[in-house]
Amino acid sequence: AVPSDLASRVGGLQFPRRPDSIDRGPLADFGPLVSLMLEVFAIRWRRRESLHVLALIHLIGEYAGHMAWEPVLGHSLDPPMLADDVSGRASLWGQVGDDRCGHRRSQQHLASEVSELEMMRSEARWVEFLHEEYSRVGEMMTVCALRGSMRAFDRRVRGCSAHCSVWVRHSEADRDALERRARLAALLGASPLIQMRHSAPVGHFFGVPDLEEIAQEWGRFAHEARKRLGHDLSVGGGVDDMPQNLCLLISALRGEPTQQSSLVADVVSHLRSILNTSTRTVET
Predict the structure, then answer these.
(1) Contact (Cβ atoms closer than 8 angstroms) between residue 65 and residue 185
(2) What is the domain count for the chain?
(3) pTM: predicted TM-score of the whole model, two decimal places
(4) Is residue 203 domain-resident?
(5) 60-109 per-position pLDDT tens digit
(6) What single-letter DSSP state applies at residue 240?
(7) Domain range enclosing 61
(8) How far apart are CA 67 and CA 186, in angstroms?
(9) CA-CA distance, 227 to 282, in Å (whole number)?
(10) Would you say the C-alpha torsion 99, 105, 111, 117 has a positive or negative sign?
């Protein structure tokens, strides 16, 4: 049997399959899931599995906005709670066609759906939202937290300067810290480090970046983060430092120290104990 503590830890990593599920998993707290991602990243890095490494970096980029907002909202953009957080008389969230809002039209339409809780109407619509739209909500919230547009590498990243209650309802101290985290999320999203996955020919073995190339691109990103935002995201310049470098990034995005989980190691240890017990039983 699976030990209850392991079962509980694994269960807490699952996104709710129903819109009204009581257990919200990563929607309530992204920390356990991203800690597992860090542990898996370290394993993939040691195995030199660069495609999997790039996929994990890409996922972290997609959910960077969620992590940036979680310290302020107390959840990871869980739709039922987010709908309250973005409402209000002075809110421009979901006001389709209002040019004061920094969102594109497609984002305004999705914002309107979030406000009206369209994804809560059926299980099928909920699953579709999680698969296709949940990551986009993080990007939209990053726009809300960027006071004006910014240049990131060779791209212009959209921001918003509107006096909207999505932003102004929070204290000045919270807003200052949030914008710094959001700028880091935007810098990561626009970085060549993220683009490496798009240029890697998935399913082939030609032209896939190796770990040294990934570490070199990380160095460029870390240099920009230090120069422009004051974040130190490197424990060292060696290739083997990448897992700890990624921990620094996640800690900066979440606003609190975040380390690798031990879940995979604990599962392996449990399986080994079962096998050892079975072997001793057979021998006797």
Answers:
(1) yes
(2) 1
(3) 0.92
(4) no
(5) 999 999 999 999 999 999 999 999 999 988 999 999 999 999 999 999 99
(6) G
(7) 4-196+208-283
(8) 12
(9) 62
(10) positive
